[in-house]
Structure formats: C-alpha cells, structure tokens
From TrEMBL:
It is found in: Plastid. Transmembrane segments: none annotated. Keywords: Plastid. Its main location: plastid. Residues 1-218 form the Plastid lipid-associated protein/fibrillin conserved domain. Pfam families: PAP_fibrillin. InterPro entries: PAP, PAP/fibrillin_dom. This is Plastid lipid-associated protein/fibrillin conserved domain-containing protein. It comes from Ostreococcus lucimarinus (strain CCE9901). GO terms for cellular component: plastid.
C-alpha cells in the first residue's frame, strides 16, 4: 500500500490504475482487522496523509499541482488517546502563497499552519463520532522576499521593524465552530460532522473512511 501511494501526490496525480491498486491493497489490510474495538494506544500520535480520494482535499491538491496556488505542504491528523485519555483530534494543513509566505513542502514547516480541533467519542464497531470545535491559524512564515520588502520599504530597520516581523510570525487566530443545533441554543458545542470509520491501524499505517465518502491513508509521522 505504501508503494502504491508513492508518486500520486496524495491522490491528486493518481491514475485509474493507481487508484485501483491502492484500493485493493487497502482492502487487503482492512480484511486483516478482526477486532471491532480500536487499539487506542496504537492510534495515538501524529499521522501524515499519504493518499485520499476525498473530493474536497483532492480539489485543493489539484489546484496546487496545476496552478501553483496555494502551495500545499504536509497534511496531518493527530489523535490524543493514549493510556485511556481523550484529548481530541487535530487536523492540520500547511499552505503557502508564492512570494508572500515561505514555501510549503512535505516535511518542511513553511507557509502557514491551518488547524481544526475536534472532539470525538467512540460509537462502537471501530467508528468515532466527530464534532469540530475550533479553527486556528498560526505559525506564519513569511518569505525572504516579503521580509526584505517589508523591512526597508515600509519601516526603517529598527526595533519597531523587528517587533512587526515578530508579530507576524507569532500571530495566532482562533475561531470557534458552531453547528446548527448550537446556534439555536441546543445540542453539543461545536459542529458535528458525522462518523469516521477507522478500518486499520498499526504502528506504521492508518486507514480511515469518512461517512460522507472518501478514504484517508496515513503513515506515522
């Protein structure tokens, strides 16, 4: 499965034959999963996206590949569930805009980090129910060109200039996410987004399938 995912740009460049090979390999691994309970200690940690056929993620990756805007770096999913804990899930993507932000590459923390925090609860049969709680923008890394232009052109080189550059780099914005029930004054805080089926997990690889459609294949980060 790992070899089949390689070179597909996380699914955006996958041919029909590539997709068929990946789905066959994923299905073979999923059939090895006999337990209907999730091994939480194995799931805990940070995972890097290797492949997906989910339309929303593929649209972003295809735009990046064809147009170069935005540049897409790493896409992560992190679970906090070791030793019986449940600190939620973090979905993270690194994005960049050429000339304004530093380049976003897989394995390099450039551009800007966009994160969505979610809570989850076990609903049985290897499924978890997700509720998105908060979106966050942080870890802004401006490009050397933008920093060079900002320094002499807008502000003289001084302590004030340094303060402005540090403010940009340390800027962090958070936005609470609310669903229909919350906005009407009822239901759980956050935006419920359905269930997520964790069909395979070991120390190296994770396969998840969203209720709305789409497979997500991750490798351990």
């Amino acid at each position: 499965l790992r070899e089949a995912c390689a070179g597909t740009y996380r699914g955006a460049l996958a041919t029909r034959d590539d997709a068929a090979e990946i789905m066959a390999a994923a299905g073979a691994l999923e059939r090895l999963t006999t337990s209907e309970t999730i091994e939480w200690d194995a799931l805990d940690g940070k995972w890097r996206l290797a492949y997906t056929n989910a339309a929303d993620v593929l649209g972003l990756l295809m735009a990046s590949q064809r147009l170069g805007v935005p540049e897409v770096g790493d896409i992560f999913q992190s679970f906090g569930c070791a030793n019986g804990t449940n600190t939620g899930i973090t979905n993270e993507i690194r994005l960049s805009v050429p000339f304004l932000l530093s380049e976003a590459k897989v394995g390099a923390p450039g551009g800007v980090g966009l994160r969505v925090q979610a809570s989850f609860k076990d609903v049985g049969r290897r499924r978890i129910a997700l509720t998105f709680q908060e979106a966050q923008v942080s870890e802004i890394s401006i490009s050397p060109l933008a920093e060079t232009l900002l320094a002499p052109a807008i502000l003289p080189r001084s302590s004030l200039n340094h303060q402005v550059l540090m403010f940009i780099k340390e800027l962090e914005l958070k936005f609470p996410l609310r669903g229909a029930l919350t906005s009407m004054g009822g239901g759980e805080a956050g935006a419920a987004v359905g269930t997520y089926h964790l069909t395979f997990c070991d120390e190296d690889m994770l396969i998840g399938r969203a209720a709305a459609g789409g497979i997500y294949i991750f490798t351990r980060a």
